[in-house]
Request: fold
Amino acid sequence: MAKRGKTRGGSTPPQPVTGKRVIEGWRGPQGGCIRLAQVGEDAAVQALMDTAGARLDQPVADQFGGELAVALCAGLSGQEAWIKAMAPLLVQRTYLEAIPGLSLVLVAEDKDGDIVGAAYALPPMPIMNGAHEQGFPPAELMSIPLAVAKLAGLSVTEKARGAGWATHLLKRTVQIYEQLDLLLLYGQFPVDSGLDRFYQERGFTPLAPQEKLDLEPLSLPFGIDPGPGEQLFVRWKH
Reply:
């Protein structure tokens, strides 16, 4: 019989994530850590996003050390807190002003204090635009960030590759969004990049090159097309 507190496989279930833990971070490879991005680290994160073919939105970069992930961190204590923290951002501000509080930027900091990796996730603007064009009322538009997030970029510096930083960044990103009870986390990568195996081994389902993401499970009457030469990958709530 397995000991109490253990899963069937014998591993200890992960501890619930708190906002404090996101800010202070988790232990990472080789004596480093995974944590929320801080003020002054936007240039390092943007350089990493450039190598991944992604872009760090300026409103998000401007809020490193400020409102970055403030609603997400509040929402880790429960769905009611998540809605309460998110609603004022979407009701009282423009979408660009609301993005930072609803976005997540985790960095990989090595034992020397250098930023060697980053993961950037944010509300799914293509899906929200599609719903707006379909005439969805504001209340339904507001519910989309509660259900879906896009992993816009995941990158590690060349010198730090092979140590497991990307796996740790992705693991913590998924852990946060799972605790927020998201239904879908998705992203895209260049076709023939070989990243399909990386994401598949970490719980995502790569779609076929140029395959459209069907949003019918979310009761949305449209889908998301990958960019030219891109391939989508998805992780639906189990």
